[in-house]
Design a protein that fits this description.
Blueprint lengths: L12 E5 L3 E6 L19 E8 L6 H6 L3 E6 L2 E7 L4 E5 L2 E8 L13 E9 L2 E8 L6 E7 L2 E8 L18 H8 L10 H4 L9 H10 L7 E7 L6 H6 L3 E4 L13 E4 L4 E7 L5 E11 L6 E8 L4 E7 L15 E22 L6 E3 L1 E5 L18 E5 L2 E5 L8 E8 L7 E5 L3 E5 L7 E9 L2 E2 L6 E3 L14 E5 L2 E5 L8 E8 L7 E7 L3 E4 L8 E8 L11 E3 L23 E6 L30 E2 L8 E18 L10 E10 L9 E4 L30 H4 L2 E20 L6 E2 L1 E6 L6 H6 L16 H12 L9 H15 L6 E4 L6 H8 L7 E8 L3 E7 L7 E11 L2 E9 L2 E6 L11 E7 L9 E5 L2 E2 L2 E3 L8 H22 L14 E4 L3 E5 L1 H5 L7 H22 L15 E5 L8 E3 L4 E3 L1 H4 L22 H12 L10 H9 L10 H4 L3 H10 L8 H15 L6 H12 L11 H13 ...
Parallel strand pairs: 3-11, 54-55, 56-57, 57-59, 76-87
Antiparallel strand pairs: 1-2, 1-82, 3-8, 4-5, 4-9, 6-7, 7-8, 9-10, 11-12, 13-14, 14-20, 15-19, 16-19, 16-21, 17-18, 17-19, 22-23, 23-26, 24-25, 24-27, 27-28, 27-29, 30-31, 31-34, 32-33, 32-35, 35-36, 37-39, 38-43, 39-42, 39-44, 40-41, 40-42, 45-52, 46-51, 46-53, 47-50, 47-52, 48-49, 48-51, ...
Helix pairs in contact: 2-4, 8-9, 11-13, 15-16, 18-19, 20-21
């Protein structure tokens, strides 16, 4: 065979390889064509610049300590050294030099942690230079620089192979020796070691330094040199002068020489035109810079650039500063104007037109023409996505970007603005993506990074977008109204998707319409002013966005109230100490008052608190100061209480919490310490008098009437009686961080003659007031009642309570009582549960009563142990989640008068059930008696397990009877059932407290069956909590339950979008769901074969799960409890789960098949990871695994010895420990990130041989049923889907097994999907996306339900190869005659045209013109349809690639334009527009030679490919030939072979057998890439390159163990060529496979074809 290749005499590149092909090496010098100035005789001076990347974080001081510097040499002679640790100016050999430290953005570093060090030396004569870098602990590096024609810029780094950080022994390498040297000095305290080994400069030799060296052992990357400013532009100075340009000072030639001399220009007109003509020597440039003085230099104008193709482009500039603005340039006294051309293009003329200064002149120093631009962060071609755009939608953002060639996909990163730590990623295989699951109205940032197998490009610039709602928002809820003087404050919870709000109000009883206040509001609060005090108003809020407005919120109510400074009504008018007996009053801290609250004419005086004027006051300066008020009396007095009235305006009455009282008795030194009465020192009470003891205020008792202060306007501070008191100190502690105030301080005297409260108390035999003292008569009661109705009542507080006690005494005398008595309470301590189980619930116990807001009630208590606390809580019936409970008070033994607080602002009736909380050890001692509240039905079954069945049923029966009677008496009807605050009842079980509407419970079952339904429901709730508790590791089944706290499920208003909710302290359900809580059935009643249980459904267990979740993945891990409850059957727990019933396993299996990092956006898919652990490791007991898991999780059992494990690591460690299996593969499949240390720890466990990630509900059933596992063969085939360029179908013929789960699809050995078994043949369609000219090998692995592999089939290899075209949706086409004009919707990369269909022309001339941004038009291609067809992938088409501007169609380079329009002439009018297509990127391609003689043979004669002695391929050499499309500068080749190996082995029976195996590996040898060298010697992507590969026969013989072979028999059975694209021409940096051939059969026989290279 003879083979002739079109090689025009030059070999571009040679790739030498040992085990694989190395980077291509340029064999011909690519120096720029020499250009000489037309008039200059003296060589121009140039500049050498360098950018040193500091690839690892180092302090500026570290650079100094390590003596990092650069030395410049000229022809081997040192000119000088530049220290690289400070920004400064220097002189090097008489040449000006500059060093700058820069930050990551290229600006001056101000942090002390620079990212770059740049240097420049200017004014250098052309010649040979060397730039040498050195430093302690660095590998020294020198680079030769030829300063000729262009200034030079060197780029290098401390993390590549140049100036590499970590060479401590100075052997020119960073290796294990250097790492050992540093390791020996870890934690060294010897400062002398720091200049060498402290790399980051933190003052220690630490792990960060070690990490730097470890990374640099495998450092890659080389230096890069760029041509910058043209030194001697070929400007015709004479022509310039003849066109009117003149220099009034300096020479015109100085404009183009960087010599520091300014030139003043003048011309006759108002503007100055400077035509710079390059004549017949066009100059390639990408940027023009103009330096001018800041004063008197050019400012505004236009540069018109004329290109070699005849087109021109005006570039405007304006460097003028606004009036009053002053600025400095990067260079002292100079301003630099930069004009970007967009890309490097040949320019033949530049005309600069500028406005002159007022004196008629313009001064310019230098005009430079830059060939290459050096960015702050240089990147390789096509490594970075550009043109990224974002379009916001409803909860989503659609992204588009410019397609890149030779990538297989893209990673899309996104995160909320300001929260980059919350970054998430999705994968895309095409240049667009839709990111869903985002929050509307939250701004996000997006970034796209190109990817290929084993390669990642550079991230794009970020774009920002804010998803917008597509529907109007829900009505606002949780509206709160604050009553102010002449105004109402209103606030509400933000509505999802709302962008504005509107507030409406009207007088409650007025017929007028609602009116709006404040317009459209952007906040969630407003104040409505100018209202009438004392007039009730109704209010509502509407939410809105661009789509529309919501409905109204629920109506709320409020009444503006004028501040009444009258004496509070409840204060007694008698029995108070006369203020005339007060000698003095002072503050414990005289300066602790708020000065801004007082004026000069009304300054602060302590006497404000005893002047009888409630307008004057003391207001503390802050919340943390001394809040003691000290009062001294003129004579000893007998006292029993203090009445403290706060300021009466604002919210001051709400700010009082606790108090203390100290007294001094007659005869004592009032300047010495007093006697602490409250709190009791004997019980641990403390008062440091505002000192720094800290914590003393937490021993102070709560003010007894705290909850009533906002309405009563005074606090009652009892302490007495205390006799003969001469001085008293009273302190009140604020609530929260609010401010204490006092308008009046009153003292209640102790008078034995006025002891009516004590005399009434004496009527009773116990402090609980449940029995009368023996001998009490009606006459005694009436006598006391007469005194209470007389003027004596003015001596007392709580006269209503005293009246009720007399009524109570009379009731008891008649043998009856209307109060509610609680004999013994329960201890329910959240802290005890938390300590024991690390889990707690609600502490509430129903008090058995309800009350309306602002209602006064009395609770008598007995048996409360000293130091223990019983708290009373009021609640709001059917409340909002944010306002449902408030503390009403803390009980003491004896009488407790409480006012029920108002909760919430809605216009419905305020009030609800009352509760107590107690967590002490003596609940059986405590008894309560409640008066003046409404007795409600309570089903108290907390002692369920101590009761007989008949007792249980009797209690329930009695409850039902009470419930039926109560509803009517309470006035509950169907019309008011959601608003009547007395529509309440409580069902109290060992593990549950159901706080429900009484009418809903009554209607939950027919009257005749209600008792039975409640009985069954209690059993069902016990089942639910048994499952949940045992799942979480809380042992103790049913009667053995040791949890004190319970789950409290309450009837609550649902906020927008909620059906139920969990809030930690309770679970809220809507009114409509309340009855269902009484309709459960226990597991014991589950019929045989039932598909589901009756344990109240998914939702309740879901919310209980929220309250019990220990893993913290909301909406995911809480559903473990839902699944456990849902599947529980009292046996093995194998009922259908929601994952199975709703078909979620397909998503679960795809997630685990792909194994992508990170969690799934589908919460039910992610739930699958946790559920599969149950499916794999729970045997007969369905909760065993998680019972043990959560015990270990809470105790940290398996994380001991692991420093700060992440959530992922703790999960993997705990699960593996509990399962006693190495679950690394399982969690990696689920995308968890595990450190190498954790993986090593997990490797100590036995291996898990099953594919646990492919288990479903049926898997566990089959395992428990002992279904067998077997292997079976099956077949699969892969092929391109007809009519598609990018889809491959894998067709599977199933194996004959019963429990087949499905098939894992692998592409090139990597799992990409899972196809579930449907019983018959299966088909999977793989969409390749961006990959092109690549070959994909498919394998299918079958798994059974047990997770075992049962077989594997090779589906074959398929190659995707097509012409990548611009989507038709990205442009419009206009036709006119034989011209077709494509208008792109956005600037798009286009590299060619393609014509298809039967109407495509067979001949005729055509031209293609591309118009780019800015209107510049370029002829991209011209030719004739009869020739030049470059179609490869679609031979039934005509395809041609674009030329570089200014070249002819014979130029084989492929040029890509960023096009706005593409105009094609010569297109037949009859040809359909759809048959005319634009090629986006050509992309790399490779193929074996298509020739009748084949692609492999022996070389006919010696072939010389270079000038070197060894650059010859001898005759007879075995070579492999083919063609490629790509860039020989960045591309190289690998040849892969399939080698069949046979080996004789002895089997177990002792006989010999032959084992055949297959090995795929790279072939040893070297590759040659051939390309035409264009006239400008700038090689880029070419359309028809040629390659040959020369196998290393000797090496292959060694690898294969052959003793003698001529090469033929060493060939693999099949071969494949891969084209690789490198990030850097020298082979450093990343690389990716961009094109592949299919596997091809190697030729057989002893005689191979003869190849002749001409």
């Amino acid at each position: 065979m003879k083979f002739s290749a079109r090689i025009l005499s030059l070999v571009l590149a040679l790739a030498l390889a040992l085990s694989c092909a190395c980077p291509a090496l340029a064999l011909e010098s690519q120096e720029e064509t020499e250009t000489k100035p037309l008039t200059e005789a003296v060589p121009a001076l140039g500049e050498i610049q360098a950018t040193l990347r500091l690839d690892y974080a180092q302090k500026r001081s570290a650079l100094q300590n390590h003596d990092v510097k650069a030395v410049l040499l000229q022809n081997g002679r040192q000119l000088g050294a530049l220290p690289l640790w400070e920004t400064n100016s220097f002189s090097v050999g008489g040449y000006p030099a500059q060093v700058e430290l820069k930050n990551a953005d290229g600006g001056p570093d101000g942090t002390g942690w620079p990212r770059y060090a740049t240097l420049s030396v200017s004014g250098l004569p052309q010649g040979s230079y060397t730039l040498a870098f050195s430093g302690l602990g660095y590998k020294s590096y020198s680079h030769s620089i030829a300063l000729q024609n262009y200034s030079q810029h060197l780029i290098l780094g401390t993390g590549d192979t140049t100036f590499t950080l970590g060479d401590f022994n100075r052997d020119g390498r960073v290796n294990e020796i250097d790492r050992d040297l540093l390791s020996q000095r870890l934690a060294s305290t010897d400062p002398s070691q720091y200049p060498t080994y402290d790399l980051d400069g933190d003052g220690a030799v630490g792990l960060a330094d070690l990490a730097y060296v470890t990374r640099n052992i495998k450092a890659t990357g080389a230096a890069e040199v760029k041509n910058t400013a043209l030194l001697s532009p070929p400007v015709n100075i004479a022509a310039l002068t003849s066109l009117g340009a003149s220099a009034s000072s300096g020479s015109l030639s100085d404009l183009f020489t960087d010599n520091g001399r300014s030139v003043s220009l003048a011309s006759a007109g108002n503007t100055l035109d400077l035509p710079i003509d390059f004549g017949s020597s066009p100059v390639e440039m990408s940027q023009i810079t103009i330096d001018a003085p800041e004063n008197g230099g050019l400012e505004t104008g236009t540069a018109t650039v004329e290109y070699t193709d005849g087109s021109s482009e005006p570039l405007s500039f304006n460097a003028a500063l606004p009036a009053g603005v002053y600025a400095i340039g990067r260079s002292d006294g100079l301003r630099t104007i930069t004009l970007e051309l967009g890309k490097r293009v040949p320019v033949k003329k530049v005309t600069i037109s500028v406005s002159k200064t007022p004196d008629g002149y313009v001064t310019v120093e230098t005009i430079r023409f830059l060939k290459d631009i050096v960015p702050e962060n240089p990147v390789a071609p096509n490594r970075q996505v550009t043109g990224l755009t974002a379009a916001a939608g409803h909860e989503k953002v659609t992204l588009k970007w410019r397609e890149l060639p030779n990538v297989t996909g893209y990673r899309v990163d996104f995160w909320p603005v300001g929260k980059e730590s919350s970054r998430r990623s999705v994968q895309a295989s095409v240049p667009y993506a839709e990111v869903t699951g985002l929050d509307n109205l939250q701004a996000y940032k997006f970034q796209v990074t190109p990817t290929a197998e084993g390669w990642t490009g550079d991230p794009s610039d970020t774009v920002e977008a804010t998803p917008q709602p597509s529907k109007k928002p829900d009505a606002p809820d949780m509206v709160q109204v604050t009553e102010l003087e002449g105004a109402l404050g209103i606030s509400w919870k933000a509505s999802k998707a709302a962008t504005f709000y509107e507030v409406y109000y009207k007088e409650k009883n007025a017929s007028a319409a609602y009116q709006q206040v404040g317009g459209s509001l952007r906040t969630t609060s407003a104040t409505i002013s100018s209202l009438k005090n004392g007039t009730p108003y109704q209010l509502y809020v509407v939410a809105g966005n661009e789509v529309g407005k919501s409905g109204a919120s629920r109506i709320s109510e409020g009444t503006p109230k004028a501040v009444v400074y009258d004496r509070p009504e409840g204060l007694p008018s008698s029995g108070l100490l006369d203020a005339g007996k007060i000698a003095s009053i002072k503050l414990g801290a005289p300066g602790n008052y708020a000065g801004k609250e007082y004026t000069a004419d009304k300054p602060f005086k302590p006497e404000n608190m005893i002047d009888g004027d409630y307008r004057t006051h003391w207001t503390a300066a802050n919340w943390y100061g001394n809040e003691h008020v000290v009062t001294t009396f003129k004579e000893p007095v007998d006292l029993q209480a203090v009445l403290w009235s706060p300021r009466l305006d604002g919210n001051y009455p709400r700010f009082l919490r606790a108090y203390s009282v100290q007294v001094w008795y007659e005869g004592e030194n009032v300047n010495g310490p007093g006697h602490l009465l409250v709190p009791d020192p004997a019980k641990g009470g403390q008062d440091s008098n505002g000192g720094t003891a800290g914590g003393d205020v937490f021993t102070w008792p709560t003010i007894p009437n705290k909850s009533a202060i906002p309405t009563s306007k005074f606090a009652i501070l009892p302490f007495g009686p205390a006799k003969k008191v001469i001085q008293i100190s009273v302190a009140v502690e604020q609530d929260g961080y609010n401010i204490v105030s006092c308008s009046e301080l009153l003292f209640m005297e102790y008078d034995p003659d006025h002891c009516l409260p004590d005399e009434i108390s004496a009527l009773f035999a116990n402090e609980l007031r449940t029995r009368l003292r023996s001998g009490v008569t009606l006459q005694q009661i009436n006598s006391l009642r007469t005194r209470l109705n007389s003027d004596e009542r003015f001596y007392y507080l709580d006269t209503a309570t005293l009246k009720d006690e007399l009524d109570l005494a009379q009731e008891l005398l008649s043998g009856q009582s209307t109060g509610v008595v609680v004999e013994g309470i329960q201890s329910r301590s959240a802290s005890t549960d938390s300590q024991k189980h690390k889990q707690s619930g609600s502490e509430l116990q129903p008090l058995g009563v309800a009350a309306k807001a602002n209602q006064e009630i009395t609770i008598y208590a007995s048996g409360i142990p000293s130091g223990e606390k019983v708290s009373v809580y009021a609640t709001q019936f059917n409340a909002e989640a944010s306002t449902w409970r408030a503390l009403a008070g803390t009980l003491e033994n004896g009488r407790n008068t409480l006012t029920v607080p108002k909760i919430g602002s809605q216009s419905t009736e305020r009030g609800g059930s009352l509760y107590i909380s107690y967590g002490g050890a003596n609940p059986h001692l405590i008894n309560l008696h409640v008066r003046r509240a409404t007795d409600i039905p309570v089903l108290e079954l907390s002692g369920w397990y101590a009761m007989t069945e008949s007792a249980r049923k009797q209690v329930i029966s009695d409850y039902v009877a009470e419930l039926n009677s109560y509803i009517g008496k309470a006035g509950v009807t169907e019309s008011n059932k959601t608003t009547k605050c007395l529509n309440v009842t409580e069902i109290s079980t060992p593990t549950m407290l159901l706080s429900l509407p009484s009418l809903a419970v009554k209607n939950s079952a027919p009257a005749s069956g209600l008792a039975e339904a409640l009985y069954n429901s209690v059993l069902a709730w016990e089942d639910v909590m048994y499952i949940c508790n045992t799942t979480q590791g809380i042992d103790g089944a049913y009667s053995g339950n040791t949890m004190q706290t319970r789950q409290n499920i309450r009837c609550m208003q649902m906020f927008s979008g909620a059906f139920m909710y969990a809030a930690g302290s309770h679970i809220g359900v809507g009114y409509g769901s309340s009855a269902g809580l009484c309709g459960g059935a226990p597991i014991a009643s589950l019929p045989s074969g039932a598909a589901a249980n009756s344990l109240f459904g998914w939702g309740i267990a879901h919310e209980i799960g929220h309250n019990m979740d220990k893993l913290g993945k909301a909406e995911i891990t809480n559903n473990l409890y839902s699944l456990m409850v849902q599947t529980y059957d009292g046996k093995q727990g194998t009922l259908r789960s929601r994952l199975e019933a709703s078909g979620k396993y397909q998503g679960i299996f795809n997630k685990t098949a792909q194994g992508l990092p990170g969690a799934s956006n589908d919460v039910f898919v992610q739930l699958g990871m946790y559920w599969q652990l149950h499916l794999a490791y729970d045997n007969q007991s369905p909760t065993d695994f998680y019972n043990r898991f959560f015990k270990a999780w809470k105790a940290g059992t398996y994380t001991d010895g692991v420093a700060s494990p992440t959530y992922d690591e703790k999960l993997a460690l705990t699960a593996s420990g509990v399962a006693n299996r190495n679950l690394t593969a399982f969690f990696t499949r689920w995308g968890l990130d595990l450190s190498s240390a954790v993986k090593e720890k997990l490797s100590d466990y036995p291996a898990e041989t099953r594919a646990v990630w492919y288990l479903n509900d049926q898997s566990r059933r089959d395992r428990l049923n002992r279904v067998s596992s077997s292997t079976a063969s099956f077949s699969a085939s892969a092929a391109k889907r007809a009519g598609s360029d990018t889809e491959i179908q894998v067709v599977i013929t199933p194996p004959n097994v019963q429990n087949l789960q499905g098939y894992e699809i692998q592409r090139d050995g990597k799992a990409i999907a899972f196809v579930p078994s449907t019983g018959g043949s299966a088909v999977y369609t793989d969409v390749i996306g961006s990959g092109n000219h690549l070959a994909f090998t498919y394998t299918v692995t079958a798994y059974n339900t047990l997770g075992n592999e049962i077989g594997r089939a090779n589906a074959g290899q398929v190659r995707i190869a097509y012409d990548k075209t611009v989507p038709a949706s990205d442009y419009t086409v206009a036709r006119s005659g034989n011209t077709a004009t494509f208008t792109l919707r956005s600037e798009t990369s286009v590299s060619g045209i393609k014509l298809t269909g039967n109407s495509r022309p067979a001949s005729g001339s055509y031209t293609v013109t591309v118009t780019q941004a800015g209107g510049k038009s370029v002829k991209a291609r011209e030719g004739n349809f009869s020739t030049g067809n470059q179609a490869v992938d679609d031979r039934n088409s005509y395809l041609t690639y674009f030329n570089k501007p200014g070249t002819s169609s014979t130029d084989t380079r492929v040029w890509t334009y960023d096009a706005k329009t593409v105009t094609i002439t010569g297109i037949p009018a009859a040809m359909a527009s759809s048959d005319i297509q634009l090629i986006s990127y050509a992309g790399d391609d490779v193929s074996f030679l298509e020739d009748e003689g084949g692609f492999m043979g022996r070389l006919e004669s010696d072939y010389r490919y270079g000038d070197g002695t060894g650059d010859v391929i001898p005759a007879g050499t075995l070579i492999i030939a083919g063609t490629y499309r790509g860039d020989p500068v960045y591309n190289t080749l690998r040849l892969k072979g399939k080698f069949t190996k046979t080996q004789a082995v002895t089997n177990a029976s002792g006989s010999e057998q032959v084992v055949v195996s297959e090995e795929i590996r790279d072939m040893d040898g070297y590759a040659l890439l051939f390309a035409e060298i264009p006239e400008d010697k700038q090689v880029s992507d070419i359309s028809d390159g040629l390659f040959i590969f020369v196998p290393n026969v000797q090496k292959e013989a060694e690898l294969q163990g052959a003793t003698h072979c001529d090469g033929v028999n060493l060939l693999p059975s099949q071969i494949m060529v891969e084209m690789v694209r490198k990030d850097n021409p020298d082979g450093t940096g990343g690389q990716r496979t961009t094109a592949q051939t299919l596997w091809a059969q190697s030729p057989g026989g002893d005689t191979l074809p003869v190849i002749r290279l001409a």
